[in-house]
Amino acid sequence: MKNKLSPVVKWVGGKRQLLPMLLERLPNDISEKTYVEPFFGGGALLFSLQPKKAIINDINEDLILLYKVIQSNVDALICELKQLENTESIFYYLRDLPKKDPKIFDSYTNIQKAARTLYLNKTCFNGLYRVNKKGFFNTPYCKDEKRIFLQEAKLLACAEFFNKNDIKILCQDYKKTLRNLNESHFVYLDPPYDKENKSSFVSYTKYQFSTKNQKELKDICKILHRRNVKFMQSNALTSYIENIYKDDNFYVDIIRATRMINCKGDKRGFVPEVIIKNYKK
User: Fold this and answer.
1) In 3-state terms, what secondary structure has residue 258?
2) I need a surface site. Which of 1, 41, 95, 200 has the fewest CB within 10 A?
3) Residue 216 neighbours by CB distance under 10 Å
4) Do 111 and 69 touch, CB atoms closer than 8 A?
5) How far apart are the C-alpha atoms of 233 and 169, rounded to whole Å?
6) CB 204 within 8 A of CB 192
7) How far apart are CA 241 and CA 211, in angstroms?
8) E-strand spans in the chain?
9) Residues 134-184: pLDDT tens digits?
10) Are 171 and 64 in contact (CB under 8 A)?
11) pTM of the full predicted structure?
């Protein structure tokens, strides 16, 4: 019986609310595949599936360092987090440290850096991980000192899953992760969404995902298809995305997703998205 697992971070574009729609569209032979997710983020689908073998990747160095520390030394991470308090002054000190005093930040251990990432994620406004063009985290404080940033049981469960299974954690360009895959792999693609959709958010890192990158990803999907690699992709419902995927016999399903992370309340709610596959269920 699988343990209850859930994402350890709140991530913009996270797929917790879409899990039923994603799970029902997975291929029937998913249990026989090595699961690959090159835009990992919060990892809701992986934690729901709990595959025995997986390759996860994200270009966000802070996020991947957090996952690696959870995998290698979760007890030390928990101890580090226990030394922190949810206050506005501590939040802004940790948030601005890489910019104001980079020497001190560079002296931080990986455990301290991972604790900082998780602390900021849990105590910032609306759980919004956002960076500027220089790569500095710039989301303001939540102003809710009752918010819990240490969920010990969740971290321990995540660490147990990472260590009891063959989970490879990478931090590189997504294209490298997709090289040399074959029919023994299943790929779930959750890239930064096409920006024609005004509800899209792409400031996860200082590297922006442009329309050109969307076309590049589509070409890679064609390569995966030729190699008999099954894939499923989530993206925004835009005219551009519909247009570039319509002529290659891919299966495009339109769904309604709930997006609650926005600085303006009237911009939250249901938005149309697509799920793209290269196989029939």
Assistant:
1) strand
2) 1
3) 14
4) yes
5) 20
6) yes
7) 9
8) 34-37, 53-57, 166-170, 185-189, 230-236, 251-259, 269-277
9) 888 999 998 877 789 999 999 999 999 999 999 999 999 999 999 999 999
10) yes
11) 0.90
